[in-house]
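Researcher: Here's a chain I'd like modeled. Treat it as a single chain, no partners, no ligands.
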Amino acid sequence: MPMTSPLIACERAHQRREQARRGLVSVGFRRRAAQSLQNGAPRFTTSHTRVARIASVDGGGPLRRFAAAPCLALALALAGCGSETKKSAALAKEHVQALAQMAREDAREVRTGLPLGALELAKLLPPPEQGELEPQVAREALEKARNKVQDLRVAKSTFFAIVAPTGVVIRNDQQQDRLAGKNLLDAFPGLRPALAGGYVETRGSMPEAAEVRGKPDAEWVAAVPVRIAGATRALYATGWSWSAYAYRLENAARSAARGATSEPQKVPLIYAYVVVDQEVYGAPVSPEVNARAVREQALLGKLHAQEPLSRELEITGRGFGLGAELVPELGDKVAIVVLRSET
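Model: Modeled as a single isolated chain. C-alpha cells:
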C-alpha cells in the first residue's frame, strides 16, 4: 500500500513536539502559535504539517487531537495493509513452490531429451568424410531432430544449436541466428567435456544468447556429442537466458493468479526472479528496484534444501509478499523468487 501524507504529518508532528519539549522551536513560532490558540482561530492549518506544528505547542489540547487523527487513520489503513501483505506472502510461497516444481520438469526435459535428439542428429547429418557441415543442412537437421523427441518439442529453451568440435556455432534454430560463427566453448568452457562424450550442463554469459538489452543477462546451457562412426561430429547444444526464463515463470504465476480470481480488477501484481549466485535476473521489463530489493534480501544464505521461504517486505512504499525456494536442478546456488502484491 503506498505511503500517504498522513504518515509524513505524523512524523513531522512528532518532530515538532520533541523540538518544542526541548526548546528547539523558535520563540517567534511559539508566540504566533500561542496567540492563534488564544484567539480560537488556528492560523496555520493549511496542511497536515502546519496543524502538526501547532499541535506540538498545544500540549494535550484539541488541536493535538486533531493532528493525531490522520495518524489514527493511517494506523487503521496500515493494519489492513498488513493483513493484505501477509496474504501476499502466503500466496507468493505457494507460487514459488509451483514454479520450482515447474523448473525441475523443465530441466528434466532437457536432460532426457537432448541425448535422444543427438541420436536423431547422428542419422541426419552427413558423415565426416563429406567435410564441414553447411549451415542450411544443420538448420534442417535441428528442426527434424527436435520434432522427433517429445521432451524437446516442449522444452523451454531459447535456442538449440549445432556446434563444430572447434566450438564454433554452425547454426541455431532461430530465424535470426546471432550465435552463428561465435565460439560457444569460449563463452561456456564448462561444455568442453561434452566433446569427449556425455551430457554436460554449465552456466555462463554470452551477449549473443542474451534475451534482454540494457541490463545484465546470463545463460544456463547444456550440450551432448553427436557421434558418427565413433567420432564426435558436432555438439548438440541448447539453453535459455535467465531473463527469458524469469519471464516464462512470471507468466505462469500470473496466469495461475488470474485463474484463481473472478474479479479481473483484483488480479495482483506478480514478478518472478531467478537468483544465480549474487545476481538477480528478472523478465526484460521487470522493475529494477524490485530486483534490487530481492538482491538485498541475500536469500541464498537463508534458504535450505528445498524448503520454501516467505516474508513480507516493502518496496517503494508498497507492501509485497516474497516467496523463495532453491532449485538445485538448475545448478548450485540457484533459487526462484516470487514477489506478489494485492491490488
